[in-house]
Amino acid sequence: MLKYNKNQKYKARNLRSNMTESEQLLWSKIRRKQILGVQFNRQKPVGNYIVDFYAASAKLVIEVDGSQHMDAEKMMSDKKRTEFLESQSLQVLRFDNRQVLTEIDSVLDVIYQIVKGAL
To answer: Is the pLDDT of residue 54 over 60?
Structure first.
């Protein structure tokens, strides 16, 4: 089981209640073990971070990034976050909002292939 900062628990609950449109769409496609029977969690605390989606059995994190992630400072923060997650033996997939909203089938195919390879 991954360790997490217990202070993140309440923030994660709030984020689950206020998901973006792209997060809601992706969640509707991966929840309830729709991809190879793998359970995904949303807004899951991992270390000092909260990841958008997490599949423990596939050791997979999925991040859905908005336009604010294109800022140089945020990109550096995302890089540190990814390095931490990878140090926990997790694979990180990043999609931007546009990809999820306009290319959902391609996004799901990438997720399917990664999950299939992890099992």
So the answer is: yes
Place of tokens 């400072």: 73
How far apart are alpha carbons 2 and 24 in whole angstroms?
25
Range of the domain at 46: 8-118
Please give the tally of structural domains in the chain.
1
* Tens-digit pLDDT profile for residues 7-27: 888 889 989 999 999 999 999
2 located within any domain: no
Tokens of 107: 């996004």
What is the DSSP code string of 20-82? -HHHHHHHHHHTTTTTTT---EEEEEEBTEEEEEEETTTTEEEEEE-GGGGSHHHHHHHHHHH
Which structure tokens are listed for 90?
A: 């997790």
Nearest alpha-carbon partner for 63 in 19, 96, 99, 107: 96
23 in Cβ contact with 29 (< 8 Å) = no
